[in-house]
Sequence to fold (256 residues):
Amino acid sequence: MGHTLLHQILVADLVAPLMIAEYGDMRTRTSAAAHLGDGTWIRADLLVYCEAQEREGFVEGAPLLAVEVTSEASRVRDLGAKRDLYARYGVPCYWVVDLAPDGVRVHVHTLRGGRHVEQAVVGRGESVRLTEPFKIEIRPDRLFSGIPPWRGPVEGAYMVYENGPDLPAPQEAFEIDSFLRRWPTGAEKVELENGHPVFYGRWDQRDVEIAQRAYPGRVVRLDQRPGAPGTMRILPAASVTETMPQRIVDFDPVGG
Fold:
């Protein structure tokens, strides 16, 4: 998974404080994949989970804490649809590290009544003491004190060269084995939500046309205006008869 240098620094700044706060059988992992449910595989910037959930290469089930560091492509989804997705699968704690013009802000969400409620937003000169999933003080000025001015370009996500199994029919959901090793190779991050591939990056009409050829018969949906950073989703066809390539769809301003 490729990210800017700044993104990687922000993630790295969190690792030691979270590992120090761990207790019992807790574990912390960066750039971690989690299998939340059938057809839903996410890749979080940082996860805290129980040792029993650890599998070879991924975490099984809802982690104790998911942390996302925003990028231009992920910010809207991290603060909206991704937050709701984590709540749907019972992730009790969700933090979003957001780089704002005035510095880093951390949005702290707690699961209440089946939805994530924003417990606190802390920025420059502020702090909050938390007790879940462990005792920790979030003070952005201390956690992220060495932020460089250079952010660097978004790199392409690593995907191996061999193709996976044959694609499912256009009206069917994807499984993880048929989703991996598929276009696009230039995505910032790739995920599978309810059997729908989600690609983070900067997409325009040309990418939509390529996606329509790569995933024939499916609906290609941009969650922002063409050329702007954000997400592109590959959705099932509306019916079995909808097998012809889709037209370039209008972007979805709601997204998620």
